[in-house]
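Researcher: Next entry: Carrier domain-containing protein (Pseudomonas amygdali pv. tabaci).
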Amino acid sequence: ELGEIEAQLAALPGIEESLVLAREDEPGQPRLVAYFIEHAAASAIEVAGLRAEMLARLPGYMVPSAFVRLDAWPLTANGKVDRRALPVPDRDALPGREYEPPQGELEIAVAEIWSDLLQVEQVGRNDHFFELGGHSLLAVTLIARMRRRGMDADIRVLFAQPTLAALARAIGNGSQVKVPANLIGTECTSITPDLLPLVKLDQAGIDRIVASVTGGAPNVQDIYPLGPLQAGIFYHYLSAGDDDPYRLQARFAFADRS
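Model: Predicted structure:
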């Protein structure tokens, strides 16, 4: 993976040589850092431009969070690149974004999680998770922390909406699910398709279900399809015939009561 990132970086105009490392300058916080040497005749390369070019070629989690410009490689005594001597990225190596404070409770809550996880003091609503040092492993941790805070987070949403404002907006839209009201009244004696907004059944199908319920329609609160896990459990139950695969019995014998 690092070799692919290096190859894409080296292919950009103005880049003579490149090297990509996974650095862990903070314990437990690895991040991708790119080092590059410009062509002698090339004009100064902007870090933000490099990142934009890389984002057009690679998925966000493969794009380095920092780009360090070097005049020459530090070398070992035998002439190889001394990776341990490569400098820690400074602020100039990070692509800058105009700061705009988070807006609303959800953005503020997400910003607090980002700040703690990425060890970044100030997180703005335009900031990009992967630009701040995030990567695929930290993304998993981020989603877990967001879920602990009651947010309906998904790692696919993060990859698709990696800026703070966009992520918060996606979470907010996803959490506003309108559940249809139960239309079957307590005194209902006949159930028709228009009373079942969660499932598509014709009248014959509804009548078969109601006939299988003791007491008929008055004892039916609602009808809706099984979820995938429920469907799997029900399938194995039906396939087992007279045996119940989910009722297990075991007998243990002991030599004495001690």
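Model: Note for the record: Residues 2-93 form a domain with the GMP Synthetase; Chain A, domain 3 fold (CATH 3.30.300.30).
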